Amino acid sequence: MLASLTLLTISFRSPTSGALHDVQGAGSSVLRPFQIAASRVAQPFRDAYDYFDGLAKAKSENARLRKEVQAWRSQALLNEEAARQEPALAKELHYRTGPTFPNGYRAVTARVISSSASPFARSIVITAGSNYGIEKDSPVVSGDDLVGIVTDVFPDTAVVRLLSDTQNRVAAVDLETNARGVVRPGSGGPLILDQVAKQFPVHAGDHIVTLGTIDRNYESLYPSGIPIGKVTFAHATDTSSFLQVELQPFANLSSLQAVSVLVATRKHHK
Amino acid sequence: MSAWDGAKIAVLLFVAAVAQVSIFSQIDVYGAAPDLLLVTLVGISLLRGSVAGAAGGFFAGLIVDTATLGALGLTSLVLTLAGFWIGRYGETTGRDRAHAPYLSIAVVTVIYEVGLLVVHFVLGESAPAGPVFASLLPAVILNVIVTGPVYALVRRMLRPQAPAELSAEVQLLG
Lengths: 270, 174
Hints:
heterodimer, A: alpha+beta, Thrombin, subunit H, 3 domains, six-stranded antiparallel barrel, 32% helix, 29% strand, B: 0% strand
C-alpha cells in the first residue's frame, strides 16, 4: 500500500518528466515485445471476428453505400468546380488561412501496442515517440479520420488520448451548415457536438470536421479539416440553450491497430 | 508459499497483465471489457491467501501502469487492496466452496470499479460516475463468464495448499 501511494505521489508530482517518468518509459520499452507478441497471437481471432461480422452486415451496408456513392458523386462535381475557383478567389481577397489537414504535416504511422479503455481514461500506447519527431499535442488520425491527441511522449513510445476520453475537447464545424461547436465524449458510445447555437439547422447525416483556428493566443491543437464524425441525432429543446447533437466518430476508436501521428513539417505560429 | 510458487504466480500475472492491456481491453460489450487480470488475481488470492494476493496485486498493477504509461501506482493501489481482501476471504469463509471464485469476482469487480472511481476523484482526475455504473453489470457478467476457465487454469498451476499451510481460520471469541 505504502509503495503504491509513494509511486502515485511521485508520478503525480512530475507526470511528464523526471526519473520515474524515464524509468516508466524504459519499462514500457521492455514490455513492448511482449505486447506486440500478444497482439500478433490475437490477430487471427480478431480477423476471423471481423470477417464474420463484415459478412453479417454486408448486405445492408452495400445498400447504404450505394446510396451514399450516388450522393457523393453529385457533390464531387460541385466540389471540383468550387476547388477550381478557390485559389484565384483566395489570391484576390488576400485570404489568410491557418494550418490545414493534410498540408504542412507528415504522417508517422505506428502500431497500437496497448490500450486503456476504462471509463476514466480512453488512451492507447503507440510504437513511435520523440525519436520519430512526435511531440506532445500532435494530432493523431486513423486513415483520414481524427482519433485523438498525443499527451505524453517517450523516446520510442507515446500515449494518445482518444476522442472518447472524458478530458478531450475539439473545436469542430458542421460542413453542411457551418455550425460551430465543441466535440466531447457523451456518457454512452457516441460523441456530443456541444455549444451549437439553436438557430443552426443541424441534421442527421451532416459531416463534422475539426475547425482549427488562426488565433495567435488560442491556436487550436488540431489543424482544420480533419474528419471527426457524422451526426446521428440533432434536436432542440425548450429547456436547453444549445442544440443536442450526437455524432458517430468515423474512426473505430475501440479497435485501433495502427494510427498516424501528424507531425508539422514547418512550425506554425504559436 | 515456496519460491517456485512465487515464480509461477509472477508468470501468470505477467501473462494476464500483458494480455489484458494488449487484447482484452479492446473488447467492448456495452461499455465493459472482461478483466482477465482481475480474474487471475482473484484465483491466486483464493488459492494462496492474502499476502500473495496483495503482493500479486501490486506487481500486476505495476505492469499495467507501465504498459499503458498511466499514473504509476494507481492500478497497483486498487489491485493490492483487492488481492488482500479476496485472499482473506479465501483464508476464512471462502475456502473449499465451489461458488467462492464466482462470488468473489462479482463482488470484487464492483469494489474495483468503484475503488478506481474514488481514487480518481480523490486525485482530482476525471471521475465519470455515470459510465462507471452503467458498465458495472456487463463487467460483472463478463468477468463471471471468464472466471470458470481462468480459475481452472490457475488451480491447475497452483495446487490448493494443505490445510496446515494456510492461515488459521478466523474464530469468533466469546
